[in-house]
Amino acid sequence: MTDLTTLADAQAQDQRLRGQASELRLHGLLGRWSEVMVQPEQARWVAQLLGWEAAERHRRSLERRLRGARIGPFKPLADFDWKWPTHCDRGVLEELMTLAFLEDASNVVLVGPNGVGKTMCACNLGYQAVLAGRTALFITAAQLLGELASLDSDSALRRRLRHYAAPDLLMIDEVGYLSYSNRHADLLFELISRRYQHKSTVVTTNKPFAEWGEVFPNAACVVSLIDRLMHRAEVVRIDGKSYRQKEADEREAARKAERAARKPSPRASKAA
After folding, report:
1. CA 55 to CA 53: how far, in whole Å?
2. How far apart are the first and last CA of the chain?
3. How many CA within 13 A on the CB side of residue 188?
4. Which neighbouring-strand residues pair with 203?
């Protein structure tokens, strides 16, 4: 029984390594597999080599996809001060990080004032998506709509719309900080419509949906835009004072304390 078990384990190991070599497209090695793997020492070396190559390719692939996602530097959710916001559903955010919402192409809308961590949460969602092998793309609303509106041909516009409709997760940051024309509203509606029920979109905004008429004044498509965005969406409200202002105040206090520590005391000055 032990011999049979050992043989079965060896066969399973050989099959796993052969599959790994096939995934890495090492066709020369696969063509000489029997003669290479017959020697135990060579087989161990091949197994180690395959492990190195797989790990390196995974690392490079992850770096390439992270660059393509354009997420940029961000604070990990693990470093977020959950006590700072006056209102933030930690359980909902941590559940979103499992990416279950991607399975049925649901959306996520992060609502709150400036500096409470909306963008940080969106970036963490994008990062988790890339780690899970999904495609993701981060862009601000101003960049997105400015680019689309600047295209002067229908064919160029269609290509860019296809580009932004393609990622498994599209993060649109800072909707509401600027006002946009009817043209911009129509373009955003077209993009959201293309992604609707096919791919997930994360939106961060400082305005509740009732105030989006101020963002897209006089645009006829605002109600339909909100309707498509909201259908099967998780809306997360984050309230509180600016976390960036909190960190700025802490840095300023630390600088003052450092300067005070370096300043000689009056008694020491008189003695000198």
Report:
1. 5
2. 90
3. 36
4. 109, 172
Is residue 92 within 8 Å of 59, Cβ to Cβ? no
Residues 6+ apart with CB under 8 A from 217: 179
| 8 Å CB contact between 136 and 126 | yes
CA dihedral in degrees (247, 251, 253, 258; nearest 10)?
160
Give me the pLDDT at residue 144, please: 98
> Where would I find the beta strands (DSSP E) of the chain?
107-111, 136-140, 169-175, 200-205, 233-237
pLDDT digits over 5-14, tens only?
566 776 787 7
| Residue 151: CB atoms within 10 Å | 15
- Encoding tokens for residue 260? 């005070």
The closest of 187, 99, 85, 180 to 136, measured between CA atoms, is 99
Which residues, 6 or more positions from 24, have their beta carbon under 8 angstroms from its beta carbon? 50, 53, 54, 57
3-state secondary structure 249-263: HHHHHHHHHHHHHHC
What is the side-by-side strand order in the sheet with 233-237?
Answer: 136-140, 169-175, 200-205, 107-111, 233-237
Q: Which segments within 98-205 are labelled E, that is strand?
A: 107-111, 136-140, 169-175, 200-205
pTM score:
0.77
As a whole-number percent, the residues of the chain with pLDDT over 70 amount to 93
Residues 233 and 107 sit within 8 Å (Cβ to Cβ): yes
